[in-house]
Specification:
Length: about 325
C-alpha cells in the first residue's frame, strides 16, 4: 500500500528503556548465559532472546523456562538471576545518540515558556520561522521498579528528563497482569500520564501524534497496536535474526500477541514505522519536531525547571 505522508507533527515521544536507551540487553544475555553454563546448557540463542525482549518479567520467564528446562525451580533460578543482575546492571551505559536525543527533546519545553510580554516562545517560531511546540516525553519500560533503580543509578541526570509521574514501569499496578507488551496498554497509559498533566486548556495529545521508540519486536507491536508511529532501533543481532521480515515487524504483524485484536495492527509499508540503525543524528524534521538552539539552556527558567526535577528524583532515590 502507499505509505501515509500526511501525519501531524509529533507532540509526544514514548520510550522503551532496555536495549533502546541503555545497553542492558547484552547484560541480560550475560547473566542468563552464566546460569545456562552453570547447568550445562547452551548459550541463549537470538531466536529465543527475541521472544523475551520487551515482555514483562513473568511472561519472559515463562517462555525462557519452557525452552531452557533447567534442573532448578523457577524461584531458585530467579534468585540466581537477580544476584547476577544486581552485580552487572550498574555497569549499564547509554546507547549511541541517546544522550543528545533526550537532551534535545527535553529542551523543547522552552517553546512553552513565555517572554515578558506573555508571548509563548513557540509562537515566535524556530529558525525557519515556523511555529514550534514542546515535545512531551514519557518512559514505558517492562523493567520493574527495583531493576529500574539499579540500571539508572549512575544516570540520574539523564533520566531526570522523564518526570516522575510520566514513568510507567513493568510492575505498575495500573497495567493488568498479562497485558504487557506486545499489547498496547503500557503505551496508552504512558500517553495518559502526559495528557493528565498537560496545562489547562492544552489540547490532549492523540495516539497518532505520538512516536514510540523501541528495540524489541513485541515493543514495536505494542506501539502499533496503540495507534502510534514507531521508531524501531534493534540490536544488530536481532536485526540479523529477522532479516527479510523487517516490513512485517514495522507493521506489527509478527504475531507476538497471537490472534488478538488484529484490527489494531498496521499494514505492510503503511508509513507508520521506520527502522534506524541507532539514534545518532535523529531526523527531527521528518516528524515535525523543532529543537530550540542549545543556548536556551542558559535561560533562567530552564535551569529552575531542571533543578527542581533533579532534586525530586534524588529525594525519591534516597527514600527507596
Amino acid at each position: 500500500m502507499a505509505p501515509r505522508t500526511d501525519f501531524p507533527p509529533i507532540r509526544a515521544c514514548l520510550f522503551d528503556m532496555d536495549g533502546l536507551l541503555l545497553d542492558t540487553e547484552d547484560l541480560y544475555t550475560l547473566c542468563i548465559n552464566l546460569i545456562l553454563e552453570k547447568y550445562g546448557r547452551t548459550s541463549l540463542p537470538w531466536s529465543i532472546k527475541a521472544k523475551l525482549q520487551g515482555r514483562p518479567g513473568p511472561e519472559a520467564n515463562a517462555l525462557f523456562h519452557e525452552w531452557a528446562k533447567l534442573p532448578v525451580t523457577e524461584s531458585d533460578y530467579l534468585a540466581e538471576l537477580t544476584a547476577l543482575q544486581q552485580k552487572h546492571f550498574p555497569t549499564a551505559k547509554p546507547l549511541p545518540g541517546v544522550e543528545k536525543l533526550l537532551g534535545d527533546l527535553g529542551r523543547t519545553r522552552w517553546w512553552d515558556f513565555k517572554d515578558q510580554n506573555g508571548v509563548r516562545n513557540g509562537e515566535k517560531g524556530g529558525k525557519e520561522g515556523q511555529k514550534a511546540q514542546r515535545v512531551h516525553i514519557a518512559l514505558a519500560t517492562s523493567s520493574n521498579s527495583a531493576n529500574f533503580a539499579v540500571k539508572t543509578s549512575k544516570w540520574t541526570e539523564l533520566f531526570s528528563v522523564f518526570e516522575s509521574h510520566r514513568r510507567v514501569l513493568g510492575d505498575d499496578k495500573r497495567i493488568q497482569p498479562g497485558r504487557g507488551k506486545p499489547l498496547p496498554d503500557i503505551y496508552l497509559l504512558a500517553l495518559k500520564t502526559i495528557n493528565d498533566s498537560l496545562e489547562e486548556g492544552e489540547t490532549p495529545i492523540k495516539p497518532e501524534e505520538c512516536l514510540v521508540f523501541e528495540d524489541s519486536v513485541p515493543g514495536v507491536e505494542a506501539g502499533r497496536r496503540a495507534g502510534m508511529r514507531v521508531v524501531w532501533c534493534p540490536h544488530p543481532m536481532l536485526k540479523k535474526e529477522y532479516e527479510g521480515r523487517e516490513r512485517e515487524i514495522l507493521a506489527g504483524r509478527m504475531g507476538e500477541a497471537g490472534e488478538v485484536d488484529t484490527h489494531q495492527l498496521g499494514e505492510i509499508d503503511d508509513g507508520w514505522a521506520d527502522y534506524f540503525v541507532d539514534l545518532t543524528n535523529f531526523p527531527y524534521e521528518k516528524y515535525g519536531i523543532v529543537i530550540p538552539p542549545a543556548e536556551v539552556e542558559l535561560d533562567d527558567s530552564m535551569k529552575e525547571n531542571t533543578t527542581e526535577e533533579l532534586v525530586t528524583q534524588e529525594a525519591k532515590s534516597a527514600a527507596a
